[in-house]
Request: fold
Amino acid sequence: MHTTPSPTADSSGEPAIELRDLVKTFQPLRGSTDTVVTAVDGIDLTVGHGEVVAFLGPNGAGKTTTLDMVLGLTEPTSGTARVFGRPPRSAVIGGHVSAVLQTGGLLRDLTMRETVRMIASTYAATAPVDEVIDRAGLAALSGRRVSKCSGGEQQRLRFALALLPDPRLLVLDEPTAGMDVTARHEFWQTMHADASAGRTVLFATHYLEEADAFAHRIVLVAGGRVVADGPTAEIRSRASGRTVTAVVSDDAAAPATAALLRLPGVTDVKRRGERLVVTASDSDAVARLLLGELGGRDLEITTAGLEEAFMALTGRSPGEPSAGSPPDGIPARRGAVPAEVVR
Ligand SMILES: Nc1ncnc2c1ncn2[C@@H]1O[C@H](COP(=O)(O)OP(=O)(O)OP(=O)(O)O)[C@@H](O)[C@H]1O
Reply:
């Protein structure tokens, strides 16, 4: 069971993260015929202390670009990003924020422990190395060379490095990308143990299951905007609902749509051909209304898969890019991220 703390502020009265009308556009290369890409299109978000928030969205939704602004790696085109009431870079330099990004150079010939020690030596003060290794679930692997560790284990190492400064905010950008189900599971188990200590966590993911298992709150983004934001259980039920369709006459369609939208748990009603297509958490209630009062016929009920759920909530499928691709010649933005640990 998840509980959803309402966004809280610390004694300074400032939330952990505050994004106001955040916009980021990328200009095409000079001479190119490509158009401007609006990666983030007016995001408002407040994350309270101790909240664990999933930033969930399909490819190209603007997740990474938003997190980059939270980390001060890139400046907004307009709008503001504040972290603990300060400009992001200042919060990062102050040691309050760490990040685990999708990829990032690790030295392959060092062991896990040597890597953690080396990075620890670059800080003025850190949590004890052994404690960090334990918390990242690496105790049994600490003598192993990085090159001999799986992708999942290397990602746990990046997580350990991010824990070194004992940050108040941990930002993770699709930390389990490319891992198999078992490795993903292990990674989140490790995270679970750590987050229960009260750290604020914001993580980007494509996986509804991951968001569901780990986050208190899901912020669903598509096309650079927030399309749903709420307690995990609520978003989960909206996303895992059923689709009920029935043939309804043209005359009845508009009043039937209005009546259906008044039913609790109905998240979407569309006209497709001669059918009304209803997405709802309580398919029985929808079926009763459709077949009874609304005079529908030829009823069908299907369970909404993740694909459909995404479409119902975002208007597009998980793999569909939302804001156009980067213009030719612009390097993939991951390469621009300098390191996996941001201080
Ligand atoms: N440096 C850049 N130049 C041009 N366009 C960019 C740049 N970085 C990102 N974009 C575009 O901005 C949009 C949002 O990208 P972003 O990486 O933030 O999305 P995302 O939700 O993190 O996607 P994914 O899940 O695939 O990582 C995409 O259309 C992307 O192609």
